[in-house]
Amino acid sequence: MAANPAWDPEQYLRFSGERLQPAADLVARIRHPGPRRVVDLGCGAGNALPLLAARFPGAEVIGVDASAEMLAKATSAGFATAQADIATWEPEAPVDVIFSNAALHWLPGHEALFPRLLSLLAPDGVLAVQMPAMHDAPVRRLQHVVAEQGPWAQALEKVGSAPPILAMRDYYDLLRPRAASLDLWFTEYVHELHGQDPVVQWALGSSLRPFVDALPEAMKPGFLTAYAEALRPEYPPSAHGTVLLPFRRFFMLTSI
Asked: Which residue of 32, 52, 149, 247 is surrounded by the most CB atoms within 10 Å?
């Protein structure tokens, strides 16, 4: 089970453009004739809320997240928010659109989670989800390798990041009998990153947080240095000095 990271909105938003593009791509494909209630489940700092408000101008748009730090950013932008554990969240009334961008992969038990989310939709409702499909990529895999080595190994013995998501066919088998329509697809984005060890900085905004948060302050620099050294051969600078990070994401669009 994933640890519960202490989210840093500034670190997460350091790559806000790259992280927002999948949300924009998903929002553009949502089809609903006139939703009244739209919920961004796991909204984080709220950077997708303006996209949802623009896409559905007549709807009440609400951001839901467990992190008070992240919600403070969303609220400051003028959006309605609610603090709740997204694993157990329930709306006061059925929702027309449940949207979730890069949040549900942190939760285990998708076999029960996704049918439950569908049950929270109003008639003709839509569940729109995007999750990273990166468990075997070096940026994720090497976190565990480095965590098992060095003086921090004992401190990180029981620490993990987001669990692997299910196989695409498993989501199809889970959702197809419950859906009026179902679209599943993958997109691999190639992010052009700049600066010193930029893939480390990317990971610090998301998947690396549980490891870093679990370490004593004195161990954090050594762990981050070891992680950076492990990543460099996997993500070498291009001829222009930038680092390319291929990032694969899984999308699902389900209507009931």
From this structure: 52
Residue 2 placed within a domain: no
Residue 77 confidence (pLDDT): 82
Q: What is the pTM of this model?
A: 0.91
Could you tell me the residue range of the domain that residue 21 belongs to?
9-255
Q: Look at residue 1 and tell me if it is in a domain.
A: no
Residue 5's pLDDT is 54
**What is the sign of the dihedral through the CA atoms of 78, 72, 29 and 25?**
positive
Q: How confident is the model at residue 6 (pLDDT cuts 50, 70, 90)?
A: low
**Number of domains, the chain:** 1
3-state secondary structure string across the chain: CCCCCCCCHHHHHHHHHHHHHHHHHHHHHCCCCCCCEEEEECCCCCCCHHHHHHHCCCCEEEEEECCHHHHHHHHHCCCEEEECCCCCCCCCCCEEEEEEECCHHHCCCHHHHHHHHHHCEEEEEEEEEEEECCCCCHHHHHHHHHHCCCCCCCCCCCCCCCCCCCCHHHHHHHHHHHCCEEEEEEEEEEEEECCCCHHHHHHHCCCCHHHHHHCCHHHHHHHHHHHHHHHCCCCCECCCCCEEEEEEEEEEEEEC
Does any domain span residue 202? yes
Instruction: Please tell me the predicted confidence (pLDDT) of residue 30.
Output: 98
Give domain status of residue 227, yes or no. yes
Rounded average pLDDT over 95-115? 97
Beta bridge partners of 60: 37
- Write out the two tokens for 111: 């076999």
